[in-house]
Amino acid sequence: MKIALTGANSSVGTNLLAQAASQPALSFIAGVRSPSALEALPKSEQIEGRCISYSDTAALATSLTGADCVVHLAGILIEGKQTKYRDANVDATRAVVDAAKAIDAKHFVFISVVGADAASPNAYFRSKGEAEAIVAASGLSATIIRTPILLGPGTAGASALVAAAKNPKAKALGGGHYRMRPLDIDDLNSAIFNACEKQTPGCANYELVGPEAIAYCDLITKTARMIDPHTTLTVGSIPIGFTKLMAGITSTLRGGGFTPTVIDVITQDEVVEHNAHAELGVTLTPLNNTLEKILEH
Ligand SMILES: NC(=O)c1ccc[n+]([C@@H]2O[C@H](COP(=O)([O-])OP(=O)(O)OC[C@H]3O[C@@H](n4cnc5c(N)ncnc54)[C@H](OP(=O)(O)O)[C@@H]3O)[C@@H](O)[C@H]2O)c1
Fold first, then answer.
1. Which atom of ligand 1 is nearest to the CA of 147?
2. Are strands 142-147 and 150-151 parallel, antiparallel or unpaired?
């Protein structure tokens, strides 16, 4: 089976492609937006890198030609001057869905986020909800996987966590009392591979989260203790209201970056009604093992 990935240079894409050798029956079209990203892709007979553009559906379809399954990973949490939620999360999804239909893809996998909602007052959650609606209305056989914070080599969540755990004066927004369900990125990889193989008809929307709910401050101290069992680290507090005010000013001046929207996303409790690990055929990695893996890395 051939799988086409968009955003193949994302942290999820990079981790997924690192599993290619353990999936000898699979080959990949790895779609990226720039020659430098193309150059940085892992070299393997199973991986064919292609430069793709989301602005021309016909050209995008040509780029994805040959794929049985399309896995749409491209998407952003942090807006930049040139990249807004509308283009990166909504319009790009529409383009990839149209391209997948044009090439008669047998299955479509979309990585969304816990909290996605087309009616959300939060612009990030709204954009992911709108993207889900595009996938659901496409008529494609599709699997939408809503994920929480992802922990694995190169994920933004893992980098921030390890940096905080190594900082004796670590601070978190509001003291880090928001609760997370961190998911091992290898578990997401398994879910994606299984969804591509199963190709369930219709569009199914699943929430897939890690096995443990934990407050972010406790996650930091747990990680710090794994680095140094004698640590005396306690997590200080950064006031959320003031930080949002400052983020609102600086992000307006800079045209993106750390916005009040991002702060609301980060500090929201990750709550799910049903963890679909069984439906997605995933055995969840215990949090301790995930933390060991990211510390080894
Ligand atoms: N990481 C997490 O904790 C997490 C949690 C929940 C959901 N997710 C979702 O999982 C997916 C992968 O996340 P990630 O953290 O691995 O991503 P990432 O490392 O931040 O990479 C973002 C990807 O999106 C591409 N991109 C940026 N702007 C774009 C645009 N305007 N049009 C098309 N592509 C654009 C980037 O390409 P360039 O390099 O060319 O800019 C890159 O391939 C995303 O859809 C994200 O929303 C991630």
1. 6
2. unpaired
Which residues are paired to 184 by β-bridges? 151
Could you read off the pLDDT tens digit of each residue along the chain, which spans 297 residues? 999 999 999 999 999 999 998 999 999 999 999 999 999 999 999 999 999 999 999 999 999 999 999 999 999 999 999 999 999 999 999 999 999 999 999 999 999 999 999 999 999 999 999 999 999 999 999 999 999 999 998 899 999 999 999 999 999 999 999 999 999 999 999 999 999 999 999 999 999 999 999 999 999 999 999 999 999 999 999 999 999 999 999 999 999 999 999 999 999 999 999 999 999 999 999 999 999 999 998
Q: Which CATH class is domain 2-155+183-210+271-284?
A: alpha beta
Most ligand 1 atoms within 8 A of CB, residue of 5, 6, 17, 33 to mutate:
33
Q: Distance of CA 272 to CAs 116, 219, 220, 268, Å?
A: 11, 19, 22, 12
Of all protein residues, the one whose alpha carbon is nearest to atom 12 of ligand 1 is 73
CB-CB neighbours of 23 under 10 Å? 17
Q: Which residues contact 183 (CB under 8 A, 6 or more apart)?
A: 147, 148, 149, 150, 151, 208, 209, 210, 284
Strand locations in the chain (E):
2-6, 27-32, 47-51, 69-72, 107-113, 142-147, 150-151, 171-173, 179-180, 183-184, 203-207, 214-215, 236-238
Take atom 7 of ligand 1 and give the residue whose Cα is closest: 113
Angle CA(193)–CA(194)–CA(199) in degrees, nearest 5? 105
* DSSP structure class, residue 43: P
Is the Cβ atom of 141 under 6 angstroms away from ligand 1? no
Instruction: From 34, 73, 70, select the one nearest 50 (Cα to Cα).
Output: 34
Return d(Cα 41, Cα 28) in angstroms, integer.
Answer: 11
pTM of the predicted model as reported, rounded to 2 decimal places: 0.98
DSSP-based three-state secondary structure for 58 = helix
